[in-house]
Amino acid sequence: MLKFIECSRDAMQGWSRMIPATEKMEYLNALLRVGFDTLDFGSFVSAKAIPQMADTAEVLAGLEPSGTKLLAIVANVRGAEEAVLHERIQYLGFPFSISETFQIRNTNKTIPEALEQVTAIQELCIKNGKQLVIYISMGFGNPYGDPYSPEVALEWADRFAGMHIPIISLADTVGVAEPAGIAALFSALVPAYPQVEFGAHFHSTPQAWEEKIAAAWDNGCRRFDSAIRGIGGCPMAQDDLVGNIATENLLRFCASRGIASGLDANAFGEAMVLSDRVFRH
After folding, report:
1. Looking at the 3D structure of the chain, how many domains does it have?
2. Contact call for residues 77 and 124 (beta carbons, < 8 A)
3. Does residue 196 have a pLDDT over 80?
4. Could you tell me how far CA 43 lies from the centroid of its own chain?
5. What is the span of the domain harbouring residue 25?
6. Which CATH number does the domain housing residue 163 bear?
7. Which tens digits make up the pLDDT trace of 67-103?
8. What pTM value is reported for the model?
């Protein structure tokens, strides 16, 4: 079975219209009825940097009980300290860029400083019964001219695995990944670290999504991030955003391969309809 991680937070965080907390609650509750494995629902980050996520704690309080696990993004120890106080949050996600330029743009920290944050956040997670998800941002290259090779991504994955971080997601932050590079990384990582769950967080043009998903799936990846209608992208990366993989396309991929999705089709249809209202300008 393919594991669906619905990234509503990624879709909402850069949206031009401020979405009221009540609308976020309604949309997230609709998503919680679909049966996704995990909902990336919000973030505990600077309200100045990402004003759309300033109401994450308020929104969390309005979410209905569900078997779907909740993931919140944090960018530093302060955010992690706030996130771990919430019993319903199971996962804390940290974007760790292997591009120095992007790490500074995204979290205002150098790579060594970000690694110190990861160490402290992992300790917080263990102490509070949470799990840390590391996103290796710019995991397939970067647009800044910073040094990159697949070996760099592999070295960082090895380092995080050695820190007993349970989930590592390779993030194609600006949509530059190609099938050969995706296949090379997942075919090396999945068998080498059976104790780690490796995921894929791809941003893509509408034309390239299927080849990226297929390359990851065919090389052992079973955890995929997506967002309804492909909305989203990282607002700290560049001006011309490349959107998320559309969840409906991921469902189409499952159907073409005979892969069980485990999702409630009626609930998914209702969430799709609601998304038109939430993501209006």
Report:
1. 1
2. yes
3. yes
4. 11
5. 3-278
6. 3.20.20.70
7. 999 999 999 999 999 999 999 999 999 999 999 999 9
8. 0.94
